[in-house]
Design a protein that fits this description.
The chain contains eleven helices and no strands. The chain is mostly helical and about 190 residues long. It has one domain: Phosphatidic acid phosphatase type 2/haloperoxidase (Vanadium-containing Chloroperoxidase, domain 1).
Length: about 190
């Protein structure tokens, strides 16, 4: 789980798009699924930024700072020291993505929601969030996704992404990643 947790710190595209590829069992990329890729990029901003008013207000100290320990998210440490811990933006993003994808591919909902949950838990494993930060982040992610449903541009993009998923499946597309290794890591 520690290696998977460290990999889950990545929110930059194109690598971030792969996060749910195994759970969806399809490639997620700018070339393979451009509408889905764009939906994830846009929702990353909405779900992640939804946490910042609370972060700025609470300015909760992160576990690794309080405990004076290194994290499993070394590349992020310098920036995270100055950034509030509550609620978790990563957990909001991961849970938001899981909810969106489960809506687009309801037959894969269990795997997608499990992956979204694990994505948030990665922040606890890495030592950069408290459990309550992650729990609150999931709430913020769900609220952001609920709000997105009122946006007609989001609705149109989601419809294109759903059609793209169906077409990719009809053509026999499968995730190109080593999903067995990810499943083993997440099972721990």
């Amino acid at each position: 789980m520690a290696l998977q947790a460290a990999a889950d710190t990545q929110l930059k595209f194109p690598k971030a798009a792969e996060t749910f590829s195994c759970a969806l069992d399809l490639p997620i990329s700018r070339t393979a699924t451009p509408h889905l890729n764009m939906l994830l990029r846009r929702s990353l901003l909405d779900t992640g930024l939804a946490t910042y008013a609370a972060k700025d207000s609470y300015q909760r100290v992160r576990p690794f700072v309080l405990q004076k320990e290194a994290t499993r998210a070394l590349a992020e440490e310098a920036a995270l020291v100055k950034d509030g811990s509550y609620p978790s933006g990563h957990a909001a993003i991961g849970w938001g993505w899981a909810l969106l994808l489960a809506e687009l591919a309801p037959d894969r909902a269990d795997a997608l929601l499990q992956r979204g949950h694990a994505f948030g838990q990665s922040r606890v494993v890495c030592g950069v969030h408290w459990q309550s930060d992650v729990d609150a982040g999931r709430t913020m992610g769900a609220a952001a996704v609920a709000r997105l449903h009122a946006d007609p541009v989001f609705g149109a993009q989601a419809a294109l992404a759903r059609a793209e998923i169906e077409q990719a499946r009809a053509q026999g597309a499968r995730s190109p990643l080593n999903c067995a290794a990810e499943a083993r890591a997440l099972a721990r």
